[in-house]
Specification:
The protein is an alpha+beta fold. The chain is built from eight helices and three strands.
Length: about 290
């Protein structure tokens, strides 16, 4: 074991000698300019490190100083504010007199008065006379115009407008009735129903079939149309028409006379629904748009 330790120590010594030898060779082979540059770089690095540390310390000192200055200024501001508050509280406002106020106002407007006085003193007498006469003329003209306008207004106010000989209280209501169209609420009073089943009788089939009718109706008020816009209320109309309208021949509604009869039947059943539901109003008109064989 000791033998191997001796060998390891010997090898380490040889390696150290070789590395020292190689470093010397490298130093000898390295040009002087490179050595100088490396040395300068090292010096610059050291100086930069020192300068950086100094700048950090200076910035810390400056920051601390600024904080101290701000604190001092804020304390001074607080002290001055407190002093002003104390002075304001201790000031005797009762000592302010009208004479002092007038004196302050006069001092404030004194320069303006002095300038005006100098300007007036610099004017010629003829200029003053002409200006005064002009101002008087303008004033008198304005007064005359206002007076005449007032007189004209009073005369017009006293005039009485003659009423028509056949005037009556009903004329206003008649004008209002004519100015407002009676058709203005027709769209709100109307409702459209599509694909309404109408029973028909076909003899050959010996049974009932249906026609699909699209029609609309106009009620006497908007509430009826609004009420039957709801689906559940609309189906009340559909069921009533399907159950109570008697079966008809399919070709009968296609003729003009048949359409009139069918329209009257639908109108009658719709009015019966209103009576059963105790809804005020009536169905005024029924309009059939289309008839299809179902």
């Amino acid at each position: 074991m000791k033998f191997w330790l001796k060998i390891e120590s010997f090898i380490n010594k040889i390696l150290i000698v070789i590395s020292n030898f190689l470093s010397r060779i490298v130093l000898k082979l390295t040009p002087k300019s490179v050595k100088k540059t490396v040395a300068q770089t090292d010096i610059i690095r050291k100086k930069t490190t020192i300068n950086f540390k100094e700048s950090i310390s200076k910035s810390k000192q400056f920051t601390l100083k600024s904080i101290g200055d701000v604190k001092k200024k804020s304390e001074k501001a607080k002290i001055s504010a407190l002093e002003k508050v104390v002075k304001a509280k201790s000031y005797d406002y009762k000592s302010i007199t009208p004479k002092k106020v007038l004196a302050g106002v006069s001092l404030l407007f004194a320069p303006l008065f002095i300038k005006t006085q100098k300007w007036l003193s610099g004017l010629k007498p003829t200029t003053i006379v002409v200006g005064t006469a002009g101002m008087m003329a303008i004033t008198l003209t304005g007064i005359t115009v206002i007076k005449q306008a007032s007189e004209i207004d009073n005369k017009m106010a006293k005039e009485v407008v003659r009423e028509p000989s056949s005037y009556s209280d009903t004329m206003d209501s008649e004008k209002l009735a004519h100015s407002r169209s009676k058709f203005r609420h027709y769209t709100e009073m109307s409702l459209q129903l599509n694909d309404v089943n109408i029973p028909i009788y076909i003899e050959e089939r010996k049974g009932m079939q249906t026609l699909l009718v699209d029609f609309s109706f106009r009620a006497s008020n908007r509430y009826i149309a609004k009420y039957f816009e709801k689906i559940q209320n609309e189906y009340v109309l559909r069921d009533r028409i399907y159950k109570n309208v008697q079966p008809i021949i399919p070709s009968f509604p296609m003729e003009e006379e048949g359409k009139i009869i069918l329209r009257n039947k639908i109108k009658r059943e719709l009015n019966n629904v209103l009576k059963d539901l105790k809804i005020d109003g009536t169905i005024e008109e029924v309009y059939i748009q289309s008839i299809l064989n179902g």
